[in-house]
Amino acid sequence: MVSALRREWAGAAELEVAVDGTALRALAYPALTGRPQPGDRVLLNTTALALGLGTGGYALVVAVPGRLPEDPAGPGHRRCLPCLPPFIRNGRSVALPGAGRAPPT
């Protein structure tokens, strides 16, 4: 749940969120997720944060359930970014020591 809006800058918002009684910093991109407000439940991706993968100490807001982002003003269209999936799960990789080889395709 969003506890507080800490600060905002062009295209991003830093939030304080509570997860199981623990305070975390989270980063939201309102054009993609909608604008989270204090008291909102948010869906977070914490995998990279938990693994120490250079998130700057932020969890990533994936969605604000029940609320879509606002439609952009003016002409144009939206573009899907399939190469940037919001749900990244932890798994074995051939790049990790001791991970073994990838199965043949």
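Second entry:
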Amino acid sequence: MTEHGAMVLRVCRAVLGGADAEDAWSETFLAALKAYPELPDDANVEAWLVTVSRRKAIDVVRAAARRAVPVAEVPENSSAPGAEARPYLSSQTGSTRPHSTITRLSMASPWT
């Protein structure tokens, strides 16, 4: 860690900025400690740590994108995301049960 710690932190800061870089740095060395015994003797440790740190930083970015964003007020005419992809929830099918739609779709399937 003393030899490569500063370099790993630079990689994390390059991807994340300053806010979450320390968390990604910690995650990098935790993952590296687990994987190090399997690393070949002739491996380039610095390049390997750059790869691990970059992937851990990207994981932090992806995790932040999945978190819910708080809003001050919920709009009144909001529909659930993806509602148009679930026809069994609409009044057009005559039923609110998903299996009835699946049954109708499977009966109309050209493969049966």
